[in-house]
Amino acid sequence: MRQFQLILFVLFSGIFSGFSQHGKSKMTEEEFHEMRYEIEKIQTSNKDSVFVLVDDMMKIANSFKDDQILAKALLTKADVRSKYKDQVQAIATINEAIKINKRQNNKAELALCYYILGKCYAQKADHIEATKYYLKAIETTKEKDSVIIVKAYSGLTMVSVAQANYQNGLKYNLLAEKYTTKSTPEELIAHNLMIKGVIYRFLEDFKKADTYLSKAATLFKKINNKFNLASTLNEQSDLYLESDPLKCIDLKLEAKALLDEIAPERSTTAYCLSILGDLYITVATNDSLLKNIKNPIVPKTKIRLFNDAESFYLRALDITKKNNNIQGVSESILYLSILQGLKGDYKNAYENLVVATKMNDSLFSQENKNAIAKLESEKEVGELKAANEKKETFNAILIGSSIALLLILFFAYRNFRNKRKVQNLKISELEKDKQLLTVDAMLKGQEEERSRIAKDLHDGLGGLLSGTKLSFINMKENLILTPENAEQFDKSLSMLDTTIVDLRKVAQNLMPEALVKFGLNEALRDFCNSIQSSSKITVNCQKIGVNRKLNNTAEVFVYRIIQELTNNAVKHSKATEIIVQLALSETKTSITVEDNGIGYENTNLQNKNGSGLDNIEYRVQYLNGTIDTETGLNKGTSVNIELNV
Questions:
Q1: How far apart are CA 195 and CA 232, in angstroms?
Q2: pLDDT, tens digit (0-9, with 9 covering 90-100), for 464-521
Q3: How far out from the chain centre does Cα 401 lie?
Q4: In terms of DSSP bridges, do strands 589-595 and 637-643 run parallel, antiparallel, or are they unpaired?
Q5: CA distance 574 to 27
């Protein structure tokens, strides 16, 4: 790899020197742009070489006397600066490009500038400015460049995730997906799938998280993007840290193999190694897991697992030191200390424990810090008396004290982590409660408005039309009409009848009278009969399980869910038969709406947008339920919903 970088450097140096000696005619505009693309490819390979190339590129760009070439060169320079964390210089450079593109009124390049500017602010953790420029990029493109729109929404997703606003992140992620087309780079599609998986992981929907991370891994593997594939496998493996340590190990080892090849000294690699060390210790201290090891790479004995874990920690420590990651260094030393204590190497365990505690003492209580100071004092006293005491006695004291301290700090650290997890859980619950209150208000408002409109239509406009019809009938009896006029009069009365029937249907859909008077079962039966009579589709309505009544809100929500799903089947599925099933147990309510229609591919499920589907999801979420959809081309569709009411 380093030889390849050297060849590129020599090649470009030759091109640039030739250009400077022989004038602009030696490099065409097309060659200049090829040079930009090559710089973008190798920009993270060798900092010094790339910076030299960028400086030469800027000299050549200026010599062209073409503002558009200069603006594009400035963007390349900014991107390189951004990659090396020089965000101040990158932002200043992009602003130069923005001035040029504003003068030229080049909307496409201006949108790209805004997107990269948003990315720079995001890397500075300036979320307000990042959001501002991502939105400006979207506004400037006006849907002409879907790739920039997808990138900008992807950036907004990352900003929301960084702020722990996962619902907002999911919203932007779905918008990025909405604008994805055949021209969208597969790498960007895979990245958005990975972020969606991460969001669902934080939302604790681990099934969906695993699904999207698996899709992202498959796509990264296809395009041979090894670093992002390793990052995705790392995220996916974390889903199984608690539930399936052996599967977690398999995924971590796969990620480690890729990182060893392409990024052996990155922070991502150190994280992967540290977690692998933790997992090996977990397996080594659990006989059940130890017996079920199937991966040939994973050792089958406790001592070998301990030894491999120690090598992982040592390598992670080396990487974090090189990256000047103090927090990472202290954590690696702490884990190494715990492992050495388990192995019986108490002397090194003690020494590493003291170092880790000094580096990161804010994680521990004052009581534990005092215990360390006391132990250090005892050690010094012991050393002063060592000449007059037996060596065995000193060793016994040191070993016993180290073990005790090791256990204290281990449990203190674990308690700290548990408290942090509980706090995060409470925050998530509060956010969820707030969201449910919003959904509750919105849905109840909808139902109240439906009820009001239905009443106005039925009592007001319906009564008026009925009165009008009666007046026409009375008028006819007092009029002398020709046969032609009598026939036309009867047709008008028939049209008025049809209008009254249609009006009653609208009022019935807005707020079914049967639901209010007779309850959910009768309302569903009436609804299914009306669908069958109006569409000529066989609708089989079933009610099974225990006989109990839901509360009013739940009955309305269940009716609306079935109504929306059935109407969707009638409109889109081309089905000849629909099955509607309502099953009640003592504590749960299950809904199944199934048709024998044309169905659709599972991969298109997320692209089916509409307020109706959104309302279904809101109602299911409000009732603490889950949705499972099974479909396929020409295989019909089955939607199964389980509600906790």
A1: 9
A2: 566 666 666 666 666 666 777 777 777 776 776 677 666 655 655 555 666 767 778 8
A3: 46
A4: antiparallel
A5: 61
What is the rounded CA–CA span in Å between residue 72 and residue 61? 9
Coil/strand/helix, residue 629 = strand
Write the burial class of residue 204 (CB in 10 Å: 0-12 exposed, 13-18 middle, 19+ buried).
exposed
Phi and psi angles of residue 178, each rounded to the nearest 5 degrees, phi first? -60, -40
Residue type, 643: L
What structural domains and CATH numbers belong to the chain? 241-344 (no CATH), 517-643 (3.30.565.10)
Measured distance CA(353)–CA(402) in Å, rounded: 9
> CA 571 to CA 66: how far, in whole Å?
56
- In 3D space, the residue among 146, 80, 170 whose CA is nearest the CA of residue 116 turns out to be 80
User: Residue 385, class by beta-carbon neighbours within 10 Å (0-12 exposed, 13-18 middle, 19+ buried)?
Assistant: exposed
DSSP class of 583: E
Give the integer Cα–Cα distance in Å for 18 and 377. 70
Rounded-to-integer distance, Cα 406 and Cα 346, Å: 9
Task: Tokens for 470, please give them.
Answer: 């009666």
Q: Where are the alpha helices (DSSP H) in 360-512?
A: 366-384, 391-455, 462-477, 483-510
- pLDDT tens sequence across 507-519: 555 556 667 677 7
The first and second tokens of residue 638, run together, are 């089955």
Residues 6 or more apart whose CB falls under 8 angstroms from that of 272 comprise: 230, 234, 252, 255, 256, 259
Amino acid at 255: A
Q: Is 181 left (phi over 0), alpha (psi -120 to 50) or beta?
A: beta
Rounded to whole angstroms, the Cα distance separating 588 from 582 reads 11
pTM for the structure as a whole: 0.51
The residue type of 95 is N
